Amino acid sequence: MSAACWARTRGVGISLGDDCVVEAGLYVTAGTKVALPDGRVVKGKELSGSNGLLLRRNSQTGAVEAVPRTGTGIELNADLHAN
User: Fold this and answer.
1) pLDDT of residue 40
2) 3-class DSSP state for residue 20?
3) Angle at alpha carbon of residue 23, lines to 12 and 56, rounded to 5°
4) C-alpha angle with apex 82: 81 to 83, nearest 5 degrees?
5) Percent of the chain scored above 90 by pLDDT?
6) Which of 7, 41, 60, 75 has the most neighbouring CB atoms within 10 Å?
7) Which tens digits make up the pLDDT trace of 24-40?
């Protein structure tokens, strides 16, 4: 998994590419069904190596979704991490 993939307190059982974010509490495995913006549903393993994704759980349907992530990199909030 790329160092640019932020997956703390979540789990990823596939190899994601750069600039991916996984929602807190979400675990994505090779067999997880993931809804894409175009309406297709794929297994997590089909996303292996993908860059620039936000993986989240839809709070109304419970479906795991992969949506394009805009922006690059991850920045920590300096005020929250001052200790």
Assistant:
1) 97
2) coil
3) 95
4) 95
5) 53
6) 7
7) 889 999 999 999 999 99
Say yes or no to pLDDT of 77 above 80: no
Q: DSSP per residue over 32-74, as a string?
A: -EEE-TTS-EEEGGGGTT--SEEEEE-TTT--EEEEE--S-S-
What tokens does 77 get? 């909030």
Which whole-number Å values give the CA distances from 83 to 6, 10, 24, 79, in the listed order? 21, 23, 22, 9
The answer to whether the Cα torsion of 13, 34, 22, 66 is positive or negative is positive
Give the separation between CA 8 and CA 13, rounded to whole angstroms: 13
Non-local (6+) Cβ contacts of 76 within 8 A are none
